[in-house]
TrEMBL record:
Its EC number is 3.4.22.41. It catalyses: The recombinant enzyme cleaves synthetic substrates with Phe and Leu (better than Val) in P2, with high specificity constant (kcat/Km) comparable to that of cathepsin L. SUPFAM superfamilies: Cystatin/monellin (SSF54403), Cysteine proteinases (SSF54001). One of its GO terms (biological process) is immune system process. It holds the Pfam family Peptidase_C1. SMART domains: CY, Inhibitor_I29, Pept_C1. It comes from the Eukaryota. GO terms for molecular function: cysteine-type endopeptidase activity; cysteine-type endopeptidase inhibitor activity. Thiol protease which is believed to participate in intracellular degradation and turnover of proteins. Has also been implicated in tumor invasion and metastasis. This is Cathepsin F. It is an enzyme of class 3 (hydrolase). Residues 1-22 form the signal peptide.
């Protein structure tokens, strides 16, 4: 653990952040991890961890038959804010079909039917929270028995390392195919991207192991970009100056308390997810998403409106290099309204302003800022429509699904760098969330949406909620 942390860029970032905030670094974030210790078969937690790994394995596999642990090769545990088990086991086919209700699951007597796999599991158990998490699962078919005879158990670590790099290459290849990535044939390009991909997987594992929600982090379409590249292309540096932004009028408080849950997608106020492309124009998408909702509530028709109009014609903001929602509302008021997406289509780069007042289909009259209390934000949203909000997007580069609740040091609420649209809220299995419409395409997160923990001002989500007002 300590060795793994030593070269972690994330830790450096965390340290840099702590220094910037004047946090006492001598006070550890959580107790220093202990060193791994080997386990006896009789260890009380081991059985539970094995069962948990087995259950997760079966749940995630497409195999017809249930598999059970047929041999324990090695097991260690380590104290890391709970107990982290590393288990190397063989899993073999039982005669039980997965769907069968009668469970007398004997192994097959014939070796060839066993289809044995060798798996490495890491199970993270937090006894005082009653939770177990599968941090890692790496499986490979077991080698032929004759070959294995010559393979002493000491070779396991070398073999595991090889398995690991094979697996990494496999994941990278899959990533390249899935997201249609072609790298220039220039020497070293793909190599460099593979290294970044590897680093990002490690960062995702770190986020995963410390996530306090139910999120899954891992390979995303941004997995071949360094954190710096990602930030400079997709995020919004102007939002970091949010404390100096033009003061908006305070919104009057919501008339009713917030209902338990609300989702504007179920009420026709939200257009499909759009894609800002390689341009830091999230602010335009956030504001236009809000205006689409406001116009729908005023007028009854949901029209897709133009972000490009803001990118080209809002002279105060910086087009693809970032902007502030407060400026964007003002720009639209001055222009006299917004054209449709069809009439003024998105190109993803700044062009000469091509606005025609004759093509305006929606207007706004002013804008307001909503209170920073999450309960009030929820009540306001349910009453008035989807809201423009901003947040710290560090964890979003690695997010795949579930309710994200990053460890605070990875998601500094004062370093806001991405604007999005809050469309609803609720709870999943007791975990309260915000439903956030993003502008990175539908192949990001959950069909283009990011779900963030609600109730702890996570990632600064409460800092900059605002809305246009249509009279
Ligand atoms: C809704 O907006 C459209 C387009 O701007 C307009 O033609 C129509 O009259 C509006 N309808 C209502 C009920 O306001
Ligand atoms: C709101 O703005 C529109 C367009 O600029 C304008 O025609 C309308 O009169 C305004 N409404 C009010 C109540 O000010």
């Amino acid at each position: 653990m300590a060795a793994a942390l030593r070269f972690n860029p994330l830790l450096f970032l965390a340290l840099a952040v702590s220094v910037a905030l004047g946090i006492d670094l001598k006070r550890p974030l959580f107790p220093a991890p202990g060193s791994p210790i080997g386990l006896q078969d009789s260890d009380p937690g081991l059985r539970k961890a094995l069962q948990f790994a087995e259950e997760r394995y079966n749940r995630g596999s497409n195999a017809m038959h249930l598999r059970r642990v047929s041999r324990l090769i090695s097991a260690t545990k380590q104290v890391v804010k709970g107990i982290r088990y590393s288990l190397t086991v063989e899993l073999s086919n039982t005669q039980c079909k997965k769907s069968a209700t009668l469970r007398t699951c004997d192994f097959y007597p014939e070796a060839h039917s066993l289809k044995t796999e060798v798996c490495l599991f890491e199970v993270w158990d937090i006894p005082w929270e009653g939770t177990s998490t599968l941090l890692k699962q790496k499986c490979e078919p077991k080698m032929d028995p004759e070959l294995e005879e010559t393979n002493k158990i000491e070779d396991w670590s070398a073999q595991a390392e090889e398995v690991e790099s094979m697996k990494l290459l496999g994941q990278f290849k899959e990533f390249m195919v899935k997201y249609n990535k072609g790298y220039s044939t220039q020497e070293g390009t793909a190599d460099r991207r593979l290294k970044i991909f590897h680093e990002n997987l490690k960062t995702a594992e770190k986020l995963q192991s410390l996530d306090q929600g139910s999120a899954e982090y891992g390979v995303t379409k941004f997995s071949d970009l360094t954190v710096e590249e990602f930030r400079s292309v997709y995020l919004n540096p102007m939002l970091s100056q949010w404390t100096q932004h033009r003061e908006l009028k305070r919104a009057p408080p919501a008339a009713q308390p917030a209902p338990d849950s609300w989702d504007w997608r179920e009420h026709g106020a939200v257009n499909p997810v759009k894609n800002q492309g390689m341009c830091g124009s999230c602010w335009a998408f956030s504001v236009i998403g809000n205006i689409e909702g406001q116009w729908f509530l005023k007028n009854g028709s949901l029209i897709s409106l133009s972000e490009q109009e803001l990118v080209d014609c809002d002279g105060v903001d910086k087009a693809c290099r970032g902007g502030l929602p407060s400026n964007a509302y003002e720009a639209i008021e001055k222009l006299g309204g917004v054209e449709t997406e069809n009439d003024y289509s998105y190109t993803g780069h700044k062009q000469k302003c091509d606005f025609t007042s004759g093509k305006v289909v929606a207007y706004i009259n002013s804008s307001v800022e909503i209170d920073k209390d999450e309960k009030e934000i929820a009540a306001w949203l349910a009453e008035h429509g989807p809201l423009s909000v901003a947040l710290n997007a560090f964890a979003m580069q690695f997010y795949r699904k579930g309710v994200s609740h990053p460890f605070k040091i990875f998601c500094n609420p004062w370093m806001i760098d991405h604007a999005v649209l809050l469309v609803g809220y609720g709870a999943r299995k007791g975990v309260p969330f915000w439903a956030i419409k993003n502008s990175w395409g539908e192949d990001y997160g959950e069909q283009g949406y990011y779900y963030l923990y609600r109730g702890s001002n996570a990632c600064g989500i409460n800092k900059m909620a605002s809305s246009a007002v249509v009279n």
